[in-house]
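One record is set out below.
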Amino acid sequence: MMRVFKTLVLLFAAFTLLIFGLAFGIMLQGPTEKPSLVDCEEKIVKVAEESSPFVVSVIATGDISDFRSPLDDLFPQHEERSEMSGSGFFISQDGLVLTNRHVIRDEDADYTVFTDDGEELSAEIYAIDPVYDLAVLKVEGSGFPVAPLGSSHDLRVGQTAVAIGNALGELQNTVSVGIVSGLGRNVAARGFDRIEMLDNVIQTDAGINEGNSGGPLLDRKGKVIGINTAMAMDAQNIGFAIPIDDAQRAIRGVIEEGEIVYPFLGVQYVIVDEEVKEEEGLSVSYGALITGDQAVEPGSAADKAGIRKGDVILEVDGVTVDINNSLVRLITAYDPGDKVSLTVMRGEERLEIDVSLGEREY
């Protein structure tokens, strides 16, 4: 009995020491400190200070008949010359500037880049992206500060987003802060002369205004996660940016090869969902329905392979085509000349068609 009693006493003493030790350790460690508002503010200030040198304003000057800007009513221009503005950022030390394609849509205009320190540089159109709303300008010089590129792959809704650009074409390197409001958005952007579909873009409430187009969207570490490209005109604080991962092909192309090259299938299509299935009397609720005035472009890869209007492309090399994997997104993962196998529904018949991809021209 005495032995059992001693054992219980020792166990109680050990338990008491364990609890005391844990409590003492917590006391020494102290309470976990959360980042203060001052700390968060300082991080944004640091992002702004470190990012502004690689952000530029892009000014296009041409005949007033060539283009009209929505800002003309706010900031009247000269009678014979008109100005359009946007933003961009350096992607190489030798003067390559990434911007939006719609910022440099007039190839006959004169382009000027203004750096954060006020330097004025003449710019030439270097490359135009035939798929995404991206383009590259070239200025003479070397040693330019290059934007650090992050990744849009692991973005989370709610994380901090910082936009920098030439707001309203008048307020150079304006900084606005918000969050990533949504991911994978597909929107129709109305430009000056056409409607362009923006696929898989980032939605943000960081202020994106006229003139911000082409500027960077940054994370709290100051790395580029997107290229600001559009805003919702009938709403407040709804802007969109092209994910930087989608721009990497264009960036690598111009730096390594001096051009941006994409594969080309040569079809017009709509993504099939339940509504399209019902309207068209289809037997499937996914895939890409080949349709439109020029459903299959003559002489294209699709035309040579025998793709027809009314076909539904279900898979590309075994990967399902649907709202989350658009046909153009799957095709652009390849290079011109690559052969891909398309699973096609033609009426009630399922076909396997091999296609040798062409090259997309702008």
